Amino acid sequence: MEHGGASLLARYGFSIVDLVRTLVPEAEFFPWLFQRTPQNFWDDRQNHVRFFKYLGEQEGCREDSEEGWYKLTLKVIQDHGGSTLMQTKYQNSPFLALSSVFPNLSFLPWRFGHSPHRYWEKRENQKQFLNFLYHRLRMRSMDDWYSVSQEDFEKNFGGGLLACYHGSPSQLLRANYPDIEWVPWKFSYTPQLQRYGKEDLLQFLKEVKVKMAIETMNDWYRLSQVQVRELGGQKMIAMFGGLAKVCTDFDYCKPANSVLITSTIGIVVGLS
Predict the structure, then answer these.
(1) For residue 40, what are the contacts with CB-CB under 8 A and spacing of at least 6?
(2) Closest Cα to residue 89, out of 126, 51, 60?
(3) Fewest Cβ atoms closer than 10 Å to its Cβ: which of 56, 131, 177, 221?
(4) pTM given for the model
(5) Hey, is 24 helix, strand or coil?
């Protein structure tokens, strides 16, 4: 425009791409590298395919494998001229774009670092990730979930999902596998604000009764704080005020000759 080319450019609909294609027909131009693409250029899906094939060549991604494409962040795509395409057609989601352009490949949305908006609201998406993590961490049974930490989720692209459950693996698993009787105190990680109910306490006491071979009321006196910690119930007992308070607050925990000693739990409960 500054050099007097306005009237010439107007003959080509003010499209620099159409102008240079006419002037240099033997050359291959990539419209997305110009400051502006032709009007309605991204309405043609074939142009989406052309762009991502070009991008794959530039970034060393293969069309027969998902792995290389996961390194393509939104910024990388924008830097190669795909800003308008991503914003207007794919909600700025690399996962949505690549899944559309390469339907023969099975992309995992969380591998891109950011899942599509509201993706984790669907339970089937949550279960798909849990199945992925189960195999990625080479678990052999559902009990192996007890040893999975918050860091394991974050390192394997599940931090966003875990955030939906306040950072609690136990809450996430309880929601997705309600048929399993999860033992909350067995998890290696529980949030600072994790709350336990009286049902959890009773479940813990039942397990203690079995593991410590408790048969009579007085057998509860030999349960120490160290043993409570080893059995994973320290945080829960502390939430209820400690060993002595548990004994005081729960009538069924009091033998007839109850003497509350803070170094032992002294709990009697009808669990037979």
Answers:
(1) none
(2) 51
(3) 131
(4) 0.68
(5) coil
